Amino acid sequence: MSQDSAPYGGRHRSLRSAAMRVNSTLRHGDWLRPALVWILIIPFLMLPCADAAETGADRQVSPREADGLRVEAIRFVYPGEQALSNRDLRSAMRIQEGGRFRHGFFRGDLATLVALYQSRGYREAQITRRQLIVDENDRLRITIELDSGPRWRVRQVSVVGTETFSVPELLAQVPVATGDDLNYGRVLEGERNLQIYLNRRGHARATISNEWIDYPESHIADVIYHVNAGPRMYIGEITIQDEDDLQTRSSLVWNALTFKEGDLYDPGELSRSRQALTETELFRSVFFSTPERAIEDSLQPVHIRLQERKFIVLDANAYVNYVPGDINPRVAGSIQHINWLGRGMKLGLDASWGEPLQGGTVFMMERDLLRSGADLVLSVGVTDRWGGTQVFADPDEERQFDLLTTNDSVLEGLLLFGGEDVARQYIQTVVYDYTAITRRKEISGTLSRRWFESFNTQARVDYTRARSAPDPTRNIRYTPSDIHTGPTDPGDDDPWDDDPWDDPWDDDPWNDDPWNDDPWGNGDNGNAANGTAPGYLDYSDGHIPIDGTWKSILTDRSRSINLSTEIVRDTRDSQIAPSRGSFVRLSGLYAIQLDARTTDVVDGTAEVRQYQRLSRRFTLAMAGQYTRTAAVDKDRALPQVYWKRFGGDGSVRGVERDGIVAIGGGRTGVNLRAELRYQSGAFGMVGFLDRGNVWRRSSDYEWHDLIRPSGMVDGYGIGLRYVVGFPFRLDIAFSDGFNTEDRFRIYFSIGQAF
Fold this sequence. Notes:
The chain is of the alpha+beta class. It has six domains: about 5-55; about 60-145, Ubiquitin-like (UB roll); about 155-230, membrane protein fhac (Ubiquitin-like (UB roll), Roll); about 235-310, Ubiquitin-like (UB roll); about 355-450 and about 480-525, no CATH class; about 570-750, Beta Barrel (Porin), CATH 2.40.160. The chain contains twelve helices and 28 strands. Helix 9 crosses helix 10 (about 410-420) and helix 10 (about 410-420) runs antiparallel to helix 11 (about 420-430). The protein is globular.
């Protein structure tokens, strides 16, 4: 017999003894008394039997005994009036259906339920019974009996104790009126509103209190606010402590203040001014002190004490990408002066060295431009970026035709026996697969503003010059393609004819050293440094050495003015190692091309990241990105700088950076990422899956490619984390795409992957 049914068993034995005595009496002929006794006994016999049939193996437990059990249901019983829905009550509890029971939360949940009822005017609400029942499968059912009691209402509201302000003026600040439910929270809100109202009118030392006069027989109460406004005060002398020792100009501090000498003293204005100084990020601490004066004084002095941050900020990071047989170190750093000329202007240099991205950018940032709340950033930079590129051969470009028919033994035979048309058809299927270095020179201006703490908007204008050319240290992978595309894109003719990069820039400072140093040499890596056809090489082995001629054939140049905008909503609890919240980014770009053979470009990107804490140690992180670019004039070539690429640490781990490309240039790309993160103390582990692909045309993919095993390129693996204020990250990644001999990579850096 279960523990909770033992009392019923004792009562059963007592009742059975009574029944035996009744039967004995009945045998002696006295049948009236036992009949009455049976009438009284039978209901008591049926009650415990019904309970036993209903509960079966269920048992009642204490909150401590139920700790850790899964909650199957939470049920509410109301002997009186039900003021709130069950859904509202459940949502107010920390213990939820389907979750684990925590006895430490249960008492707080009961107090919360009572407080909710009391806030609706049920001052006498109480929990009259709570029951925790566990079934044979250790599932917990919670029953809470909540007696609301009578509802109390407000009979009248009054304000006493002040002659400076009229009673109707003060009552207008109070959200409590005659006939309302007696809501304690709203009474306190009225108290705060009166305090703020008086403070803003110079009564900095005003005191407010509330009193209730109860009428229990009618369940009503009078609410009385006692107001002592005190003297009216004005801002007196404002001083900045150690003003001459500050690097920051005094004018910047004075401009941040929202009050001046002679204004009515308002503590709220002091708080807003302090926040404005803090948001400049120039000070480690900002203190406002208001020494008390005699009660009859009408001027309140304000002393400001500031502790400045360090002016010079240095930052450096080292990254290592490991591929079997190849280690690629990379160093990135920045130096900033965050208070240049004492005006709060930021001046800095960001630089990095090593593949796949190197270069530098000098920038200047003006905060709170014209007191609009917007920040302006002006920058000048040059970057080199390594990335995979695949393009179709152009059979109508005579240099390509001559080089291929001369150095490819297969193609030479086709030309000899099949004629020129057959050779050109063969060349039309050829794909050049090589690593390109894209040098990008840019002057830009960016205006950004933060809204409502979690939103950030940005508008940007930049002038860009870009050149993409083969990396001279690597060969061109040369293979016929099984895709026949018809005529190649226009604009692939000799890029050196009427080159817009030559004469207009001869006297331009951009061409001076180091801007115009050619990182690709001058054709010193082949047999034709002078640009003539090299000696006989058999391209049919799948590799073409890069010389001056091939470099000129495959070089892509563009000049453009880019207009872009972006909106970001960021509710993450941390930008370095988030565990909850979301990140949403929408961006658009319109590029006006300044070259004769390229077209204007429209580009858009949508990115979403979501972080969900599953338990105290587990976090699920997911991210998705969709990007698409298009040429305004479809009959013209899209500059390579706008091609879409994925791969590497920033998108699909286990693949070479920017190694996921489309032949002829990707226009559409999709990237999906997921991580299950475990953290215990300073040590953590991560399992991850990345998926991505790019397509030349939107018709090349279908939405079911997102879930098909072969629809996209996958990167997967495990990672280790060690947290010392920020996480050190070590990821071991594998991939299922491309080179079967190059599917393993190791990444080491700082911060989570996304």
